[in-house]
Amino acid sequence: MKTQIGAALKPKTRRKVKKVAGLSGALRTPRILRVTPVDPLRQRFLKRLDAEVGFHRDRHRSVIGRADAGCRLVHLYRNLFVTDERNLGIINHSLSVVQRCGILFVMDGQKRQTLNHLLTALPPGLLVDSAWLQAQGVARTSVHDYVRRGWLERVAPRVYRRTTTQGAAASLRWDMAVMSAQRAALGEFYVGGMTALELHGLGHFARLGGGRTVHLYDPDHIAPSWLAALSTDAQLAMHRRALFEVSDLGIDWHRFDLGTARLGDVATSPQASEAWDHFLRVASAERAAIELMDDVPASLSFDHANKIFENLTTLRPRLLTKLLKGCTSIRAKRLFLFFADRHAHGWAKRIDRDVIDLGRGKRQLVSGGRLDARYQITVPEAFGPKTESEDP
Fold it and tell me: Considering the domain boundaries, does residue 22 fall inside one?
C-alpha cells in the first residue's frame, strides 16, 4: 500500500518555469501532483494552510513569505492525500497561483523600493524632469503610474513634483521653480541684478508698479529648457550675456526661507540635512549692482537706478574692485562709477580705480543728453553736474 501511494504521489510531468531571483526552490519549480485529499483531512489541511499564510502575512508582510509557506505546506501534507482525478485541478491551480503571487510581488517590491527612494530624494515642492526620474531608476511607465496614483503631480510637459495640497501648477512659486532648476543644472546659473538686490534687502525702490520680474543670469546657457515654460507667480527674465571674466566671482549659495522669502546665511554647498532646508544661488549686492547698470537705460530708467543707488551704502570696495576689473562692459563700469561719485558713499573712495579699464571714446546712453566729462557718457540733463544754486 505504501508503495502504491508513493508511486501515485510521484510527479509525472514537470513544468518548465523561468527562475525568479529571491524565490525558494519549491516556488521556482512547482510540481503538478496528481493527488487529491481524503475528505476528512482536507478541511484540516485548508485550515492549517490559512493559518500558516496568515502568520506570514502578519509577521513579514510579504507575498513571497506567504507563497513559500503555501508551497512548503502543500509538500508537507502531500502524504495526507490519495490519488483522485477529481481534485487534480485544485492542487495544480493552487501551485500556479502561489507561483504567480511570488513573481508579481518581486516586481511590486522593486517598484516600492524605487518609490521610497524617490520620495526620500525629492523634497516636497521641488520640481524634477523626466531625465532626473530615469536617473533615479524610475521607468517612464512607472512615472505615469505614480501620477495616476497621486504620488507625483505633473506640472508641465516632462516636469513633475511630489503631490501637494495647494492645487494646480498655476500657483507655482518662482523661487521654488528656480531652486529646482538650479538643483538640476548643478547651480551654475543664478539670481542677479535687481532681484538679487531685493533679496539682500537693498531694493526698496526696485519694484515700481506692475507685476514682478525675476532676473536670472545664465551666461553658460545651462539652465533647463523647461524653466521658461513654467507658469509661475512672476515673469522670469533670462540674461545670457557674460559680463564678467570670472564667472563665479561674487556669487554664493544662501539658505532660503520659503515662509518669509528671505535669504539666510551663506552656505558652502546646497546639501540639505533636513527636508525644510532650501538653497538659492544669488549674486552678491556688489555684483548685482554692476549687472543693474547694464540694463540702463534699455529696461531701467536713470531715475529708477538713481533711487536704488541711494540704498547701496554697505558695499565692499575690495570685491567691487575685483568685479569692476573683470567686467567686460565698458558702459556698465562707467555708469556704475558715475552713480558712485554722485552719491558719494563711503566705499566709493576706497575703490582702486587704477586697475579698472574704462576704455576709450564716448558712449551715448541717451539721445539729447549731457556729456559727463569724467566718464565720457551722455546722461539726462537732470543728472548733469550740480550748479552752485543746487548745492545745499
Answer: yes
Cβ(178)–Cβ(216) under 8 Å? yes
The full DSSP string for 72-104 is HHHHHTGGGEE--GGGHHHHHHHHHHHHHHHHH
Would residue 388 count as lying in a domain?
Answer: no
* 107 and 9 in a common domain: yes
Q: Is residue 390 part of a domain?
A: no
Q: Determine the longest span between alpha carbons in the chain, in angstroms.
A: 129
Q: Which residues form the domain of 140? A: 122-169
Which of 275, 231, 273 has the alpha carbon at shortest distance from 126? 275
Q: What is the pTM of this model?
A: 0.69
Q: Is the previous residue joined to 224 through a cis bond, with omega within 30 degrees of 0?
A: no
Q: What is the C-alpha separation between 96 and 107, in angstroms, rounded? A: 17
Asked if 165 and 178 sit in the same domain, the reply is no
Contact 27, 68 (CB under 8 A): yes
Residue 65 lies in a domain: yes
- Give the C-alpha separation, 252 to 264, whole Å: 11
Q: What's the rounded Cα separation, in Å, for the pair 259 and 46? A: 59
Q: Are residues 241 and 207 both part of a single domain? A: yes
What amino acid occupies position 346?
Answer: G
152 and 61 in one domain?
no
**At 252, phi and psi to the nearest 5?**
-140, 155
| Cell matching residue 155 | 506640472
- Which segments of the chain have a pLDDT < 70? 1-121, 164-170, 187, 204-210, 272-276, 385-392
